[in-house]
Amino acid sequence: MKREGFIQSISTRNFPPSLLRSGLSCGFDIQSTNMHGNVMNTRNLRSDSELSILCSEHQLSRRISAPLGGGLFTNSISRFEWHALMASEKTNIKTLLDTCCRENSDISSTSQKWVKRQSIMHTLLDLSQKYQASVESISLRWLLQLNEGSGDSIIVGSKLGMDLREQNGGLPYNRHKDLREVLTFALEDDDMDLIGKISGLSLPAEIPTEIDHKIDFNNKSLWL
């Protein structure tokens, strides 16, 4: 179908390296692969990982999904404490920790993973104050600068319109503003290193931070 023009490009989703390599060897013209990656799940972000090496060898761009850990690294639950969570909330968070934030470490219990998440969140909150930006923007900005010039991109789930909290008289839904905010500043080298350290990711010696991030948001053609 791609050869006949019905499909523009082929992308895989969460393929293990062995399956991706098999598809390439069978002649599939794959342009990109989708993978999980965030400040607590850096396995696929490492330049020496099998998947990263495979993408580099075949010039595949990476589409990084779950960059906010399914909501774990957002302002909305930034100050939650484990002992104060309801049973249903603990179940949902356990699922996110086990899927969006799996990691190569000796941490096995949900409570230990939550402690690490809280440690990361404290750093993100400090940086949020420094840059006067949301926790979401700090997390996404780190990923953008980490992969600057590599052809990689980040996939963030969002929605348009009013959410349930707004319908019940709460604050207006403004996720789209948070997503645009990430393009209005750049993290300094020391802060890139700091997030890399707490995430367990060894960063390259040089990461470009001098990025043209000035965008005129009064231009409505850029709005969602």
What report would you give on this structure?
Helix 2 (50-57) links the parallel strand 2 (30-36) and strand 3. By secondary structure, the chain is of the alpha/beta class. A four-stranded parallel β-sheet has the order 1-2-3-4, covered by helices on one side. It has helices at 17-25, 50-57, 87-99, 110-131, 135-146, 164-167, 175-181, 189-199; strands at residues 10-13, 30-36, 61-65, 153-154. The chain is globular, with a radius of gyration of 19 Å. It is built from eight helices and four strands; from the N terminus they run βαβαβαααβααα.
Concise synopsis of the structure shown:
This protein is of the alpha/beta class and 224 residues long. It has 8 helices and 4 strands, in the order βαβαβαααβααα. It has a 4-stranded parallel β-sheet, covered by helices on one side.
Question: What fold name stands as the CATH topology?
Answer: TIM Barrel
How many strands? 4
- Global mean pLDDT: 79
Q: Which CATH-level-2 architecture?
A: Alpha-Beta Barrel
End-to-end Cα distance, whole Å, is 31 Å
Radius of gyration: 19 Å
Output the CATH class name. Answer: Alpha Beta
Order of helix and strand elements from N to C terminus: EHEHEHHHEHHH
The number of helices is: 8
Descriptive key words:
224 residues; alpha/beta; TIM Barrel; 4-stranded parallel β-sheet; 38% helix; 8% strand; globular
What secondary-structure arrangement, pairings included, does this model have?
Elements lengths: L9 E4 L3 H9 L4 E7 L13 H8 L3 E5 L21 H13 L10 H22 L3 H12 L6 E2 L9 H4 L7 H7 L7 H11 L25
Parallel strand pairs: 1-2, 2-3, 3-4
Helix pairs in contact: 4-5, 4-8
